[in-house]
Write a structure and sequence with these properties.
Blueprint (H helix, E strand, L loop, with lengths): L8 H15 L4 H7 L4 E10 L5 E12 L5 E8 L4 H18 L5 E7 L7 H15 L8 E5 L5 H13 L29 H17 L7 E5 L3 H12 L3 E7 L2 E4 L6 H11 L9 E3 L11 E4 L8 H5 L5 E3 L8 H10 L2 E3 L1 H4 L2 H15 L5 H26 L3 H20 L4
Parallel strand pairs: 3-4, 3-5, 6-7, 6-10, 10-11, 11-12
Antiparallel strand pairs: 1-2, 2-4, 7-8, 8-9
Helix pairs in contact: 1-3, 1-14, 3-14, 4-5, 6-7, 6-12, 6-13, 12-13, 13-14
Bound molecules: nicotinamide-adenine-dinucleotide (NAD).
Nicotinamide-adenine-dinucleotide binds next to α7 and β7.
Length: 422
């Protein structure tokens, strides 16, 4: 959702790649192509609710670019989902997959819905009708959704099962790769569930190496304690970091001595949010941005780090686990303050990287070990970070600009070789 007085999210996404495009004098035709999604699919579909009434839902699938491979990107179920947001998220996926060097393009889907308001049976019917409505617009070699905010491995299992049931009988097994992020018994990959959080920790580790800082000396604040935030919190704690503050949609909690993340995960599983957790003090929403910590990890919604909030943010580094968490003016302010920002298309790429591994496993009907998955995830995250730092040094630019320069380089190289049809 766009913040008041800010460009729309899609405008902000376009402006981000245009800044990098300026630094490398990118040709106008490529700027034009990448400023628009290739396809915008909007579906309206009816679902019968538990009380017998019927409701029509509106779903989106935006396919931004597929020059490097099939469209790839999550499905978001959230009350604030709108076309502009999904367009922005789809564009970010194109640059993320290019930067991560996995053979995918960029897409995103969404449903404007609060999943908490519906029963499991209703959600299953909604997901099945959404999948049916998308029909052949998705497919294992065409467009491959995955989990995002408000969706999970359970959602992906339902999408896969529905897609399989509307495929021809001979294709029902080979279409498992139509989605990634499935549960392991349904064809998911070991390590996918925590992959984004793990990749965020690799990003923090890389930053520690760049700046000669010990990981186990760092204190951390996290906004968002869902899939990404909670896995990152657990892994960072295991690596010796002290998590002092966590916020989610129910509240903000602080413990200067460090939160017990295992107990917090248990609390959230039982109570639906961090509010009321016994091992911490309750705090106001804005306190999260003032707690004295070295690292700030936004892992919830976009536009959370605003100019006002970053003015007094004590962190030395922001690792963007969420997509688009920093407004453009706040981004400039952080740069001026000397706060490092590891951008979303780099920091949270672990999810799509392990999604690629899941897709490969589905294609070859094999199951990799945890060590295979984790070792390859680490290698791809590290290579992407190294490439970004090379560009930072060459162009004296921000990490965000550098990340786009690497991604644009890979995309444009293929356009140059293939040419533009006809
Ligand atoms: P999730 O639905 O599992 O968790 C979202 C969290 O954000 C929850 O803890 C929720 O309480 C919190 N939240 C919602 N509104 C909030 C608010 N106003 N203030 C504070 N907290 C709030 O979602 P997720 O999968 O963890 O995704 C989080 C972010 O990471 C999103 O930006 C998503 O696009 C990005 N991301 C996710 C993945 C993935 O693999 N799941 C991959 C890449 C990027």
């Amino acid at each position: 959702m766009t913040a008041v007085g800010q460009p729309s999210l899609h405008q902000a996404a376009v402006a981000q790649f245009q800044r990098a495009a300026d630094l490398i004098n990118l040709e106008a035709r490529y700027r034009e192509i990448l400023s628009f999604p290739k396809n915008e699919i909007i579906v309206n579909f009816p679902v019968t609710l538990d009380d017998g009434s019927m409701k029509v839902f509106t779903g989106y699938r935006i396919q931004h670019n597929n020059i490097l491979g099939p469209y790839k990107g999550g499905l978001r179920f959230h009350p604030d989902v709108d076309l502009d947001e999904v367009r922005a998220l789809a564009a970010w996926m194109t640059f993320k997959t290019a930067l991560a060097n996995v053979p995918f393009g960029g897409a995103k889907g969404g449903l404007t819905i609060d999943p908490h308001n519906y029963s499991t049976d209703e959600m299953r019917r909604i997901v099945r009708r959404f999948t049916h409505a998308l029909g052949s617009n998705i497919g294992p070699d065409h467009d491959i959704p995955a989990p995002d905010m408000g969706t999970s491995s359970e959602t992906m299992d339902w999408v896969m099962d529905t897609y399989s049931n509307i495929s021809s009988p001979g294709a029902r097994q080979v279409v498992k790769g139509v989605v990634t992020g499935k549960s392991i018994p349904c064809g998911g990959s070991i390590g996918r569930e925590e992959a984004t959080g793990r990749g965020v920790l690799y990003s923090l580790r890389h930053w520690c190496g760049e700046t000669n800082v010990r990981l186990d000396d760092l204190s951390v604040s996290i906004q968002g304690f869902g899939n990404v935030g909670s896995h990152f919190a657990r892994l960072a704690t295991e690596a010796g970091c002290t998590i002092k503050a966590v916020a989610d949609h129910t509240g903000t909690i602080v413990n200067e001595d460090g939160l017990d993340i295992g107990k917090l995960q248990q609390w959230v599983a039982e109570h639906g949010g961090v509010f009321g957790f016994h091992g911490a003090e309750a705090a106001d929403t804005e306190d999260l941005f003032r707690v004295e910590t070295d690292v700030f990890v936004p892992a919830a919604l976009e536009n959370q780090l605003t100019l006002e909030r970053v003015k007094n943010l004590p962190a030395r580094v922001v690792i963007e686990a969420a997509n688009g968490p920093t407004t453009p003016d706040a981004d400039d302010q952080l740069y001026d303050k000397g706060v490092d920002v590891v951008p979303d298309i780099l920091a949270n790429a672990g999810g799509v990287i392990v999604s690629y591994f899941e897709w490969l496993q589905n294609k070859s009907a094999r199951a990799w070990s945890f060590n295979d998955v984790d070792g390859r995830l680490r290698d791809l995250m590290w290579q992407a970070h190294d490439k970004v730092i090379e560009q930072v040094k060459e162009h004296h630019c921000t990490r965000r600009d550098a990340a786009y320069i690497v991604a644009l380089g890979r995309i444009i190289d293929v356009y140059d070789r293939r040419g533009i049809f006809p």
